[in-house]
Structure formats: C-alpha cells, structure tokens
Amino acid sequence: MLALEVALLTGRYVATAFDDRGRAEWPPHPARLFSALAATHFEALERSATERAALEWLEALGAPDVLASEASQRDIATVFVPVNDTSVVASLDDEAKSVDDARDALAAARASGAKGIATLEKKLAKAETRFSDALKRAIEPVAAGKEGKDGPHRAASLLPDRRTRQPRTFPSVTPSDPRIVFAWPKAAPSEEQRALLDALAARVVRLGHSSSLVAVRVKLDAVAAESPRWIPDETGELREPEDEATLRVVESGQLAALDATFERQADVPGRVMPASFQRYVRPATTHDERAPTTAFGQDWIVLGRVNEPRYPSPRLPSTRVVDIARSLRSALLKSFGANAPEVLSGHRAPGERSERAHLAIVPLPFVGHERADGSILGVALVVPSDASRDERHAIYRAVDSWRRGLERREDADAQRLPVHLGRAGILHLAVLEDEASNATLLPRTWCKRSRRWSSATPVALDRNPGDLRSPDPRKQARAYEEAEETIATACQHIGLPRPALVTAMASAPLAGGDKTRQFSPYATGKPPIQRVLLHATLTFDSPVEGPILLGSGRYLGLGLFRPSRDHG
Fold first, then answer.
1. What does the pLDDT look like over 378-399, one tens digit per residue?
2. What is the spatial distance between Cα 325 and Cα 487, in angstroms, rounded to a whole number?
3. Among the listed ranges 326-330, 406-410, 415-419, 517-521, which one has the minimum average pLDDT value?
4. Maximum distance among all alpha carbons in the chain?
5. pLDDT at 27 over 60
6. CB neighbour list of residue 141: distance below 8 Å, 6 or more residues apart
7. Regarding beta strands 172-175 and 71-73, do their DSSP bridges make them parallel or antiparallel, or are they unpaired?
8. Which residue of 120, 213, 407, 560 has the lowest C-beta tally within 10 Å?
9. CA gap 29, 24 in Å, rounded
10. What count of other Cβ atoms lies within 10 Å of the Cβ of residue 169?
C-alpha cells in the first residue's frame, strides 16, 4: 500500500474548482497533488533521475482513494489587485476572456462526457495562440519616435496612485479535519521508491493557491477505515452513492505532458493542467450515524414534463411554481373525490388547516448548473416521512383516479396528466416509473446529506421581518437579521437542528434561479396576509439530509433548497 498525507498548515484549502470560478475545489483532486510533486521536482537545482522515475511509477498507479473530511465553503470576497501595466492588461482583456471561455467549455464537456471535445480543444488552442501573439505585441519595445500621442498617458498610468484595479477571488474551504490522504491500496512500492517519494513530498510547500500551505509525507501507518473516503468508480456500477463528484486524475505520461505544457506555455498566465477526468463516489456506510432529516420523506412520486407534438408543454420559469402546484393539487383533490384525507387536502376539516406535515407539491426547477435556466422540468409529490400506509395509498389512489379519468376520454392518453394553467397553456406531465436520467428529477439530488444548502425558490417568511429596503442601513440590517431568525426557526419546525449560519438575500444563490422580485405576491391565511419572499443559504454544524422545504409556501413549491455540490 502507498498513501500520501497532506496536512493543511493554515487549516484551510484555497483552490478554484476547474468548472466554476466561484467555488472552491473539494476534495483536492489527485492531479493537483501530482502537479505539486512534479513542480517541486522541476524546481530542484539538480534534478534526480531516480526521483523522476519514482514520479513516473506513481503516475502509472491510477486513480487513488481520497480520504477527506467534510468541509465548509467560506464566503467569497472579491479583492481588487493593482495592475502593473495597464496598457498591457487593457489590450489583452478580450483575448484572455476568450481563453477562459474556451477552457471552461472544454472542462465542462470533459466532465459531462459530451461530444465535440476535439472541436473544443482546437478552439482552445486557437484562443491561446491569439492570446500569446497579443501578449508578445503588448510587451515588445516601442521604437524611438513611434510612441504616439498616448505615450505620456500610458506612462503616467503606471504610477502607483493611478493604477487600475482588477477583481480577483480566492475561493477556499475549511475542513473539519485539516488532513487529506491519497491512498493506493494495491500499490507495492520498493523501499527506494518510498524513500524518494517521501523526500520529494517533504519539499512540497503548497497545494492549490500559494496561500494554501501544506506539509506532505508518505504515510507509513494504516489508513483509518472510518475516514470519509472518496473512491474511483471505474465501472459505473456504484449506483447508490451518498455523494458523487468528478475529479481530475493522472495516468502514464502525465509528467512528460506537464513538462511539454510548461515549455509551450511558459509565458502564458493561467496555464491549463493536463489531466484525465474520473467519476468518484463516496458510498454510504452502515456504521455512519444517520444524519438529521426533515418531516418530508424521500420516496417521491415524480412527474416529468412532457413536450411532444401531440402534447406540447410551455417552458415555464421557476416563478410559476405556486401556480403549477395549486393547479395540480386541485386536479388531485378533484380526482380523489369527497372526503379527501388530511394528508392530501392539508385540512383537518373545512376551513381548518392541518397542523401536521401533509403532501407537498414541489415543481422542480433546473438550477445549480452552469447551463441552468430555471425552467420547470417536472413536479415531485413529496409524502410526509411519518405518513401511514393508508395515507400513502390515498395519494397513490388520487394519481390513479386522475389517470383513469383520462382513460375514459377517447382523445386522451392516460399516461399524460394535464395541468391547466390558464393563458400559459397546459403543462403535460407523466409519472416516471423508472429512475430519471435528468439529475433535476432525481430525489437524491435534493435530499443527499450536506452541511450547506441553497434555496432554489425563495422562502415565504412566516413573519414580517420589517423593511428590507429601508434607506436606513441599521433598520435594513435589523430586518435581515429578523428574516434570518425566522428562517432558522422554520428549519426547526420541520425537524432539523438550528443552522449555524443563515444568510438571507434577494438574489438567487443558485445559477438559473430567479430573483425574489420576479415572483408574484404570495398570500396565506384568512384574511390573506402577503408574505415576504427571500432567498437564503443555510450552513449546519454537521450534515443533514433533505428534502428541505421551508416557510409558509413549503407545500406549494416555495422554500425548496438544494444541497451544495461540495457536499460540505
């Protein structure tokens, strides 16, 4: 066995995710560790041939297991850095952006296994060539007498008090255990290889950003079996992981590729790290304590959106979740008939609202992905976790009665359930009998355990927090504090522990989400009371399981939260 232990000396890890500049990488990717070892090897005044051979042996071992604790994402602060040569930066902005866009598109395609990778690689190569040519033109000396009228202006812009500032972000995470172990259980290094790798690892000073200081060593003792372990899923057979992620790994030839890439791109900032992509999973283990969960169950009935020539469905934004949920609820109650049970109707008696959890009708928006547009891809019927067998049967009966009612119509397909939305048209849904291929329609996407959660749709607050738009900053701050307290209390109402941190906001924290001001007013009660809508992020002291549905609109699609992709 071979294991390399990385100790984070500052207690945090600073590295940007390869597919999202606004998110930190966690767990650290094996390719990043190998690059740190390779960089240390190349920085030596006298490079050892035996050390290089040890690295070439290491790269051929394949993807390692990664043992890493839970980690919390730190809030990202934008830092404005002075530019040394404003004339150079100004002339390179467009070329640099083209390179960044091309790299992001290629990384996303590799991660998802999409087609057209060769085309994207050519596009990236062309963008890098244009950037390199522009850089050479920008830094080449200007011949005497050809400075032009901008010469003095450009020279003055280099003075310290006249430099422009460029925004920079440094995403980082803080793990509960500042040690990460990369383990190859089947490796059998010789004593010489072990000693060479240990000596090389001892010279590594950082992993990721230069502020992410580390100490690396070859681990001689056994790796703890109870440590949270990410393992490569080579065959794709591990279908029930607790978490999954795409990590960059290395294979034979990586050291030569790094060497060649450096020679080719030595003067180009933001070099691309050559690597392969590997799916990793972190399977649930039987000895783990069950994470706290909510009053809502995870065995959903999922209705997927149908859009066929015969049954065209409008593409609806997340702002329509309440309209969809209300119409679908009416259809279910009508299909069930008189005397609908409390779990279905949400009322103990006419006009008397239920005090226990009942069926939540939750439209599922496409959010949290770089290409997300917030459109509704389906609807989940979320049954309370404590629902009895008879209560569950009543919900299934309502869906079946809806189907049977359609069967009696000669012009209808019983597999299509129409939700009438007035001028917006008819949203056609179908019960998904098998597991959906789209992640948005998978219950585990919304339920898997995590410490950090973000709202896909805004929370309808149970209490009015005050004036969130007050021109007085103190009053506005108090209103947001009150809103965050209300959201924290709402977590406890559905069976969760109190969050360690709640951050309320008007904008959507997930890509593709809609701002609160884009949602129609939402009112409940008699007389109706208009509820304040706010997005939020939640951070718990330890991981919790979903689904998380908060606020007074939780049974109609508002207050839906999604676990963080970093699983921390």
1. 999 999 988 888 888 989 989 8
2. 22
3. 406-410
4. 93
5. yes
6. none
7. antiparallel
8. 407
9. 11
10. 13
Comparing 20-24, 328-332, 405-409, 548-552, the range with the smallest average pLDDT is 405-409
Cβ-contact 175, 13 below 8 angstroms: yes
Residue limits of CATH 3.30.70 in the chain:
2-76+176-283
Residue 145 has pLDDT above 70, yes or no: no
Token pair of 416 as six digits: 């299509």
What residue type is 23 in one-letter code? Answer: R
Averaged confidence pLDDT in the chain: 82
**For 85-89, 227-231, 258-262, 323-327, which range has the lowest pLDDT when averaged over its residues?**
85-89
Hey, how many other C-beta atoms are within 10 angstroms of the C-beta on 512?
19
The position carrying tokens 């690295």 is: 55
Return the SS3 of 357: coil
Q: Contact, 37 vs 204, CB < 8 A? A: yes
In one letter, which amino acid is 143?
A
Contact 306, 541 (CB under 8 A): no
Could you tell me how far CA 188 lies from the centroid of its own chain?
36
* Strands, sheet with 179-184, edge to edge from the N-terminal-most edge strand: 214-218, 2-8, 179-184, 65-67, 229-232, 276-283, 241-249
| Tokens at 313, concatenated | 């469905």
- pLDDT, tens digit (0-9, with 9 covering 90-100), for 206-239: 998 888 999 999 987 666 555 578 888 866 555 4
- Gap between the Cα atoms of 465 and 502, Å rounded: 14
What are the phi and psi torsion angles at 111 (to 5°)? -65, -35
Where helices occur in 388-430 by DSSP H, the ranges are 389-407
**CB-based contact 183:2 (threshold 8 Å):** yes
CATH architecture of 2-76+176-283: 2-Layer Sandwich (3.30)
Tally the C-alpha atoms within 13 A of residue 547's C-alpha that lie toward its C-beta. Answer: 31
**Angstrom distance (rounded) from CA 100 to CA 87:** 20
